[in-house]
Amino acid sequence: MSRTERLFVTYVSSMSDTPPPPPPSYGSTPPPPSFGSTPPPPPQFGEATGTPWAAAGRPSMPGGPPPTFPGGPPPYQANPYGAQPMPPFATGQTSTGTAAMVLGIVGIFTFIVGIPSILAIIFGFKGLKQIKRSGGQVTGRGKAMTGVILGIIGVLAAIGFWIFAATNNKTSLSDIKAGDCVEVPTGTIRIGLVKQSCASPHQGEVFAAQSFQTPGSYPGDSEAQRQVGEACQAEFQSYVGTPPDGSSQFGIFVIYPTKAVWEGSGSTRIICIAENKDGSLLTTPVKDSNS
Predict the structure, then answer these.
(1) Disulfide engineering: 261 pairs with which of 8, 43, 71, 257, CB 3.0-4.6 Å?
(2) Is 216 left (phi over 0), alpha (psi -120 to 50) or beta?
(3) Do 180 and 252 share a structural domain?
(4) 290 touches 242 (CB < 8 A)
C-alpha cells in the first residue's frame, strides 16, 4: 500500500460513526464535565487566558512589552496628547506701582516740595518695567500709570510755583525807598529789586529813590546818564556824610529807565544804591557812616 493510501486509511479509521454533537446555542450553559474526567490544568503565571488585558488599552502585566494589534488602538503612552504650556496666572500686583500711586497723590498736595512727585515717577516706571518683564504674572499697570501721571503733574506744579515765587519776590521800583537793603542786580531790571534784611550781610543799601527832575520826552542815553549821575552824587553826600570821591569805601550803583520804559510806561524813577567797592557784603548801615 502506498503512503497516500496509508494516510487515507488512518484518517478514515480515526473517524467515528457517531455524528458530533451540535454546537451549543447562544446563551446555553455548557454541560458539566463528565464524572471522572480530568479538569484542565490551571494556567501558569504569565500565560494569557481569554482576551488579553492589554487589548482594552491598559498596560499589560509585568514581564514583557505590551502587545500590539493591527488596526487596534495604540499602546498606552505616558503622554498620548500634545503638551501645551498653560497661560501664566496673575500672582499679584506690583508693590512699586502701588507706591507710585500713593506718592503721586501725596505729591499733588505737597507739590511745593517736589520730592514725592519725583519719586512717584521713578517708582511708576519701575513698576511698569516689572509688569512687562513678568509676562502677565504681575498686575497693577493702572496704579503705576496713575503714579507716573500724578508725579509729572506734581513736578510741573512745583516748577511753576518756584518760577512764580522767584519772579514775584521782587519789590517794584515804585515801592523802593531810601534805607532799603537790596540785592544789587546784574543786567536789565525788568520787574523790581529783591529786598534783603539790613540786619544780615547784604549787597547794597538804597540811599536815594526819586524821579527825574525834568520829565517829558526821553532825553537820550547820554543825557539820561548825566542827570542820573548828578542826582545820585548829590544825594550820596547828604545820606552818607562824605562826598562820593576816592576817599569813600562805597561805590554807587544806579538804576534808571531806558527809552522803552520811559515811553512805554512813563516811569522816570531813579534808584541810587551804595555798595562796597571791593564787592564784599555790607554788615553795617551806610547812612551817616562817614565812610
Answers:
(1) 257
(2) left
(3) yes
(4) yes
Is residue 141 included in any domain, yes or no? yes
Backbone angles phi, psi at 117, to 5 degrees: -65, -40
Any alpha helices (H) in 113-220, and if so which ranges? 115-134, 141-168
Dmax (CA) of the chain: 174
Evaluate whether residue 84 is within a structural domain.
no
Q: Are residues 255 and 191 in the same domain?
A: yes
3-state secondary structure of 276: strand
Is 230 within the bounds of a domain? yes
Domain ranges, residue 112:
92-168
Domain assignment present for 185: yes
Q: In a structure prediction context, what are the per-residue pLDDT tens digits for the chain, which is 291 residues long?
A: 444 444 444 444 444 455 556 655 555 555 555 555 566 666 554 444 544 444 444 455 555 555 555 555 555 555 555 555 555 545 566 788 888 899 999 988 888 878 899 999 999 999 888 888 887 778 888 888 999 999 999 999 888 887 776 666 678 888 889 999 998 887 766 667 888 999 999 999 999 998 876 667 888 888 888 888 888 998 998 899 888 887 889 999 988 888 888 887 777 888 999 999 998 999 999 999 988
| CA distances from residue 287 to 31, 80, 228 in whole angstroms, order as listed | 145, 104, 20
Residues 6+ apart with CB under 8 A from 3: none
Q: Do residues 185 and 147 share a domain?
A: no
DSSP H helices, the chain, are 3-14, 95-109, 115-134, 141-168, 221-240, 259-265
Q: How many domains does the chain have?
A: 2
